[in-house]
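Lecture notes, continued. The same structure-token format from the folding unit now serves as the input rather than the output. Read the line below as a description of shape only.
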């Protein structure tokens, strides 16, 4: 059996390829799906919060958001009294794309987990959360 990092890397690469292939068919480019998902579940957010949650550099998020704003998926604005932070929210078009994307995620996850029981899926989610939290805690220290 392969080691953990290699299996995680391969699994992520395969799932990402499948999702990005479907997302590309509806006009989304890499980076946009995870930002759309974040905004659809969290609502309006600061650009730096999006970057942190999505594990993307702030500069990269800025470039992705610029393209998303250009095609009408998001709006960016500054709030009175806080000129340093940029707040991002979905437009109606962005919400439509987020809904389509949600179906893509669900379909690809379902396909990936075909051979898993409900108990195994729950266990996998718990273990992946535990792994992520452990790694995140270690990164902060």
């Amino acid at each position: 059996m392969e080691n953990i990092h290699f299996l995680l890397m391969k699994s992520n690469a395969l799932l990402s390829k499948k999702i990005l292939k479907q997302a590309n068919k509806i006009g989304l480019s890499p980076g946009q799906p995870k930002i759309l998902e974040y905004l659809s579940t969290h609502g309006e957010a600061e650009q730096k919060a999006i970057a942190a949650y999505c594990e993307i550099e702030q500069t990269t998020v800025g470039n992705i958001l610029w393209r998303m704003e250009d095609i009408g998926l998001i709006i960016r604005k500054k709030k009175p009294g806080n000129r340093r932070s940029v707040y991002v929210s979905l437009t109606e078009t962005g919400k439509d794309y987020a809904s389509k994307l949600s179906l893509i995620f669900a379909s690809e996850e379902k396909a990936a987990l075909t051979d898993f029981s409900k108990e195994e899926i729950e266990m996998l989610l718990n273990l992946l959360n535990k792994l992520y939290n452990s790694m995140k805690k270690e990164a902060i220290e």
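Point for the exam: The radius of gyration is 17 Å.
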